[in-house]
Amino acid sequence: MVIVLAAALTSLWAAPHLPEQVASHWNIRGEANGYQPRAVYTWFMPVLLLLMSLLLLFLPLVDPLKHSFMPVRGAYYWFVIGITLFMFYIHGLSLAFNLGFKFNLISWMMPGIGLLILGSGFLLERARPNWFVGIRTPWTLSSPTVWEKTHRLGGLLFKIAGIFLIFGIFFPDTSMWLMLIPLLGVSLFLTAYSFVLYQQEQNAPTH
User: Fold this and answer.
1) Which of 34, 165, 181 shows the shortest CA–CA distance to 107?
2) Which residues, including other chains, have CB under 8 Å from residue 46's CB and lie 6 or more apart?
3) Strand pairing partners for 22?
4) With 80 as the cut, is the pLDDT of residue 105 above it?
5) How far apart are CA 178 and CA 110, in angstroms?
6) CA angle, 32 as apex, 28 and 33 as ends, to 5°?
7) pTM, whole model, 2 decimals?
8) Which of 175, 68, 52 is nearest to 111 (CA)?
């Protein structure tokens, strides 16, 4: 709630200095290609932050497997704070852009995305089977062993990808690809990995 309040106060401070039409969307080269009226833009992010935070805090309460959430609730709550801080960071970048500062917004997003992915790695390696957080493939949800092995490796790969993404700020012309390729590659690999583990488990001889 402190972060949400900070976002609202930042919007209030910046609003008188913003143009009537405010850039709100950027292409992969960091060029603005979408705009909103100033009144809508000013309050969009603070309201989004509030709703998103409440949703993330509410989801574990309705999870049918919420007993699995209890051992990792500390890591999860830190992750919620991390997401909220990341969105506040994006809000600050977009405000700075619209206030006239010249920079490649997509490149400057990369350290924030990298830190968020790095934090996701710490959460993944601690996650237990549930319906909202983790690598939820049909095979991880069908086997506690497959879940554990996939998340142990997934946590490591997400940490490596996060560290890699942080340095995307130094490559403004390719920063979007530097984000998409590692994340897509890791996600596809972990999906396949969970499938292979499950097949091995099902085909293992029983005694």
Assistant:
1) 165
2) 4, 7, 8, 11, 91
3) 36
4) yes
5) 9
6) 90
7) 0.80
8) 175
